[in-house]
Write a structure and sequence with these properties.
Protein name: FAD/NAD(P)-binding domain-containing protein
Number of strands: 17
Structural class: alpha/beta
CATH architecture of the largest domain: 3-Layer(bba) Sandwich
Number of helices: 6
Strand content: 25-35%
CATH superfamily of the largest domain: FAD/NAD(P)-binding domain
Bound molecules: flavin-adenine dinucleotide
Keywords: Disulfide bond, FAD, Flavoprotein, Oxidoreductase, Redox-active center
Radius of gyration: 21 Å
Pfam families: Pyr_redox_2 (PF07992)
CATH topology of the largest domain: FAD/NAD(P)-binding domain
Largest sheet: 7 strands, mixed
InterPro entries: FAD/NAD-bd_sf, FAD/NAD-binding_dom, Ferredoxin-NADP_redctase_2, Pyr_nucl-diS_OxRdtase_2_AS
GO molecular function: oxidoreductase activity, acting on a sulfur group of donors, NAD(P) as acceptor
Number of domains: 2
Length: 307
Amino acid sequence: MFDLIIIGGGPAGVAAGVYAARKRLTTVLIAKEIGGQSSVSEGIENWIGTPMVSGTDLAKSFRTHLDAVKDQIMTLALGERVTSLVKTDGGFSVKTGGDKTFAAKAVLIATGAGRRKLTVPGADVFENKGVTYCASCDGPLFADMDVVVVGGGNAGFETAVQLLAYAKSVTLIHRHKEFKADPVTVEKVFAYPHMRVITCAEPVEVLGDKFVTGLTYTDTESDEIKKISASGIFVEAGVIPNTDFAEKLVELDPLKRIKVDPHNQRTNIEGVWAAGDCTDELYHQNNIAAGDGVKAIEDIYLWVKRQ
Ligand SMILES: Cc1cc2nc3c(=O)[nH]c(=O)nc-3n(C[C@H](O)[C@H](O)[C@H](O)COP(=O)(O)OP(=O)(O)OC[C@H]3O[C@@H](n4cnc5c(N)ncnc54)[C@H](O)[C@@H]3O)c2cc1C
């Protein structure tokens, strides 16, 4: 039996792995891959201490750091997807899709989340070629260009605010007449002269050649198909936390995110912690996920030593 199972190889899981190895906790880190969501990013400009790193290089540096500290104390079970997590007599048992079973006294869930994708034709073809899911990461690449934001919730409006700082124009489209975002945020966005908001708009197709050139949508009031020319499409259709395998054990919020105590990342189940984008943490960024992972290990270390 290990002291600890870490599930996830993004910034939260890897930061936790490095700290766990240095604290000599016997650990298995199980992950589909090392790197996490931003591995696909062309350029990450806010990983502290590194003015610019590609997602691929960040993932490589995560792996290098794990290899440097893992020694005999940490096992890496990569290419594995966890399918179940249950409580046992002495701790917890985890099963993977590859039919492996691991047991440990404590578990840290760091499985992150996936963005809800835009599913219209062209959206997958032009992903990372103009269609993007992260304004704080990719927004500056669209300086002085026309961009579209899909989504009328708070995330959509906050994305619009960020983009208004450098884009030539921002058009936010929303499928309903009323917005889900708070009126204060909506009002703030409407005040910009280069901001346009279109309601009752259902996306139909992402247009492009090598890169995105625009978007067509149905005006659901008139049933007409209309077109917006744009170089970038920022999709803010919500996120889906990777928590299915844990939902029978730990408490989730209505968005299926794991509820944690922000002081120490504990879940409602003694012996289970969670960190990063799979939790009800308010903000989702690499540095925050890594910090959450570190915070969890500080607490797990003291807890394991008390057992
Ligand atoms: C395209 C894009 C670009 C981004 N750019 C930036 C940026 O520039 N700066 C920034 O700060 N933030 C950026 N973000 C946000 C940032 O990537 C996330 O906040 C961060 O990755 C969250 O880290 P995490 O460790 O919690 O989860 P994730 O990065 O989502 O990692 C989850 C890990 O768990 C694994 N996993 C998931 N489910 C299972 C399972 N069942 N079994 C085993 N393993 C599993 C995954 O394979 C992965 O290794 C970006 C996000 C996206 C989508």
